[in-house]
Structures are given as C-alpha cells and as structure tokens.
Amino acid sequence: MAIATLSTEKPPIEAMEVVYKRPESLAEVQTHYCPGCTHGIIHRLVAEVIDELGVREKTIGVAPVGCAVFAYQYFNVDGCEAAHGRAPAMATGLKRVMPDRIIFTYQGDGDLASIGGNEIMHAAARGENITVIFVNNANYGMTGGQMAPTTLPGMVTTSSPYGRDVKTQGYPVHITEMLAIMPGVAYASRNSMHSVAEIRKTKKAIRKAFEAQIKGLGLGIVEILSSCPTNWRMDPFESLEFIRDHMVPVFPLGEYKVHDELKRRK
Q1: Which of 30, 181, 243, 262 is the most buried (most CB within 10 A)?
Q2: Strand pairing partners for 190?
Q3: What is the DSSP string of 11-53?
Q4: Could you tell me where the beta strands, DSSP code E, fall in 71-208?
C-alpha cells in the first residue's frame, strides 16, 4: 500500500507567479512615517504610475518641508528639496530649463495651502506644465499637529485646543476648487485614502495628472485626503473612519476639472 507524502521541495523561483513587487520608482528603504500614516501608500501609487508610463529615467520629484521632507530619498528618481511652500516655483524652473523632463511636487497642506498658497496659485495661473500631489491631513503633521488652512471647523489641534472657531479662525481652504476654475489647470481632482476603492480611484487620478503633463496640457493637481493617527490621537483604523465621516463631507471627492484630451483616454 502506497503512503502519500508531502513534498518538501520548493518550486524554482522562475516558475512562481509574481503577485507583488516593489515599483522600480520606489526606493527600497525604510520610511520615517508614523504607523498608520497613508503617505507610504501614496508614494507607492505615484511610483506605480511613473513606472507604468515609462518615464522613470526622466522624472524629477520636488520634496516639501513637512512630513514628506525626505520624499526625495523614497523615490528612485531624481529629486530635490524646496524651501517651505516653494515647490511649485522650483518645479517651474526645472520644467522651463528641461522641458523634456517630467516634474512633480509632493506637498502637504501646511506647505502648499499656507506658506505656499501664493506659489501654487500663480503656478496654476501661468499654466505651468507640472504635476502636483497635494496631501491633505488637516494639520501641520511634522511640527506637532497645529491648525492648518485645511483644519475642519471645530477640529481640535494643538493650536486650537477648543476646536477651530470659524468666527475668529476662518473656514478651511478649498485649494482644488480654487485651482479648477483657472484656464491654466488641465486636471484637478480630490481623492482619498480611506478605503481600497478610493485608493484605486486615487491612482487613476494621479495617472491623469501625469498624462496632462506628458501631453503638455497644463498643470495637474491631485488633492489626497490622508490620515494622521499620531496628531489626531486615533488608531489607524479610527483615522480612516475620520476621513470618511468628517473630512469627506467638508472636502467632497471627485474630479473638478478634466481637460478634453484626458477625457478621450480609453
């Protein structure tokens, strides 16, 4: 009587189906982000798009001052560091000197919407042919969780311990809606990281923003609602629910402007 035995031999690596691999445009290094922060997922989405478009060798990323201050170390593309809020200005210079390169900025809400508000508005007004990845986590994540231009009404931060009072501190700034009305903007979208379905939509939006630049259509911006468990004082799961239940109602998701050339893409 034959006795069945389990084989301990492993199939050769070349015979295995690859179901996951690190994008070439994402450096194989450990990031400094807090556990539960969605910056890492956003980095991967950007890297996947760069790989899929085949532009890694001619892409330059511009890092901000903020949580993503070391982003140039995490992407396997040429990169540089801009002064606080000045990433659009640096991207403008790079693109004008080297128009054949693909230039993207990666900025937080404190960097882009506060000190850099003037920079992004005028880059959009000029129709600079660059791609902007705008990560909105409703606070100054790197410096201790202070109130940012995108902090929600009533939201508690280290500098608004009783909640943001719109009577004295104003309302959140809606960057995407503001830029969408400008003729120089080819693509403007707001997306989120709070679910797998929304993450997939975010990648599609990032791809369109890069395609706008490749086609020479003008500025493309993707605002991404992101979590900040450390400063929100929540666990990672709760922070995703906070995005869904509290941030999305204030910052509605969707495409706010799509150039006709991008609508034709299959």
Answers
A1: 243
A2: 223, 254
A3: PPGGGSPP-----TTB-SS---PPTT-SHHHHHHHHHHHHHHH
A4: 78-81, 102-108, 131-136, 185-192
38-49 pLDDT, tens per residue?
999 999 999 999
Give SS3 for 91.
Answer: helix
- Strand 78-81 and strand 59-63: the pairing is parallel
**CATH class for the domain made up of 30-263:** alpha beta
pLDDT at 216: 98
In degrees and rounded to multiples of 5, residue 85 shows phi and psi of 85, -5
Write out pLDDT tens, residues 113-150: 999 999 999 999 999 999 999 999 999 999 999 999 99
| CA distance linking residue 225 with residue 248, whole number of Å | 8
Residue ranges of the domains in the chain? 30-263
